[in-house]
Specification:
269 residues, alpha+beta, 2 domains, 5-stranded mixed β-sheet, 11 strands
Length: 269
């Protein structure tokens, strides 16, 4: 299992797996050696790349957690699998539940391949995930596939060729269920993307936007507790902020006081 830090652009995505066919062991099944997520909905999307080539991405989502009667739960796991154009390596991107959030983190919106290297642009799913991943603006978390792993990169490192969303973002499992044979064509994806109201969902923007102002800055102690950052910021001093951290079971790595009161002399925990 791989862990993440939202402020480190070189860390790996939480529990991502890359499964080339040649590395598949006895746990794999089927002619391609691929084991999909269990108890989930699976469909295919035809992905139009920036150079006009097309690949097929197989996507799976698993819903769970608390939800109202008659409604579906949030995504607690999801995966996307594809093969590079003209290649034979099967690459899988997997996003599972993170402690303290209760569901998956992302809604992937773009998958592209530039000079043989895959990139994924994703939106965060909900306010907690947005805070968990550092409140990016433009509101994307971007990943590059290199050295057999997905690495988070800053917007500046995303090739300019990646500019058009080509995946179903909003409720993709429900949208796919309406399509013949659960196959969403590139033409249909373009139509769906064109119907999104917010500009940051219709294009991969490069400049900051007025994104989700209702989602206030929050911090977590990593043990399931999320609090408004303003709770600590309004403290009269660093020591008072530190005392609040201690009372709420924040440790040295999660307490925001050093960042919020960096102009004051730090005290020790």
């Amino acid at each position: 299992m791989l862990t993440t830090s939202p402020n480190n652009f070189t860390v790996l995505l939480h529990r991502l797996m890359v499964i080339p066919v040649v590395m598949c062991l006895s746990a794999c099944s089927g002619p391609s050696g691929y084991v999909p997520l269990s108890n989930g909905d699976t469909w295919q999307e035809e992905v139009l790349l920036h150079d006009g080539k097309k690949i097929v991405a197989e996507r799976t989502t698993v819903r769970g957690g608390r939800h109202e009667a008659g409604q579906k739960g949030d995504y607690v796991a999801q995966s996307m699998r594809f093969t590079l154009p003209g290649g034979s390596q099967h690459i899988e991107w997997e996003d599972t539940r993170i402690n303290g959030i209760g569901n998956s983190s992302f809604l992937p919106m773009a998958l592209d391949v530039v000079k043989g290297t895959p990139y994924i642009v994703a939106n965060t799913m909900g306010c907690l995930a947005y805070n968990q991943w550092g409140r990016p603006n433009p509101p994307y978390v971007i990943f590059k596939f290199e050295a057999n792993a997905w690495t988070r990169i800053p917007m500046e490192a995303l090739p300019l060729e990646v500019k058009t969303p080509n995946l179903v973002q909003s409720m993709p499992d429900l949208m796919a269920a309406k399509e013949p044979k659960r196959f969403v064509t590139a033409q249909r994806i373009a139509q769906i993307v064109g119907e999104y109201r917010q500009a940051e969902y219709r294009s991969v923007l490069r400049e900051p936007v007025n994104y989700d102002p209702s989602c206030i800055p929050m911090v977590t102690n990593g043990k399931g507790l999320w609090l408004a950052e303003g709770r600590f910021k309004k403290k009269p001093s660093f020591d008072a902020c530190l005392a609040s951290c201690k009372s709420e079971n924040f440790d040295e790595t999660t307490c925001p006081c050093n960042r919020l009161f960096k102009d004051q002399q730090p005290a020790n925990f």
